[in-house]
Amino acid sequence: MSEARDRELDALQAALAAEHAAVYGYGVVGGRIGEARRTEARAAYDAHRARRDALARAVRDLDGEPVAAQAGYALPFPVPDEEAAVRLAVRLEDRVAGVYSDLVRAAGGGRRTMAAEALREAAVRAVRWRGGSVAFPGLAERAGTASPSAAPTA
Prior knowledge:
The chain has helices spanning 3-32, 35-61, 82-106, 109-130. By secondary structure, it is mainly α. Residues 141-151 have low confidence and may be disordered. The protein contains four helices and no strands.
């Protein structure tokens, strides 16, 4: 396998791991979010499940074995109420945007387009949850980190 293909496969696996973590995290968000934002949380959960499944197919297309979801993920902070659930949703979207920015750099063609779309979608969801935006979604949140974790931990 070529070095470029290895980088793309690694970035796909990282994005898949982040999507596994996001699906788990939105399970927590959905259990704590108020009725007014429950539809929004469900839509995000469904979007991350769809991306997760597409990424697993992309990994298999490159003859890789898709990384499996963990049984559970450590949350970056306690999520006892709706306010914390909203903060967790923002964190999940920021993390996902970060790994998709890596995939944009590593992939080409249709996979790069898919990664850019996923990055945009995560950034838009983060803005909705946060109530505001950041200059470079997926990058500013990672400033000062050597290697971001796919799990939603701090």
